[in-house]
Amino acid sequence: xxxxxxxxxxxxxxxxxxxxxxxxxxxxxxxxxxxxxxxxxxxxxxxxxxxxxxxxxxxxxxxxxxxxxxxxxxxxxxxxxxxx
Length: 84
Hints:
By secondary structure, the chain is mostly helical. Helices cover 73% and strands 0% of the residues. The protein has helices at 2-9, 13-33, 36-51, 57-72.
């Protein structure tokens, strides 16, 4: 029965491979997204962009709020955009 199952399951092997790859990518993205060093780099880049006049104070505050929200786990909804 194991041979028959293996033969019948063979067409699904590429799908399983893609799903497995997607899980690995998702884990890496989560690890990088919530890494404190990554958040710090984002905050420093926002501060530098604001100092050079590339973004407004409101945009910098929004970036800070999103970045810090990722660290605290409150990155779900953004009440300032009124999205809904």
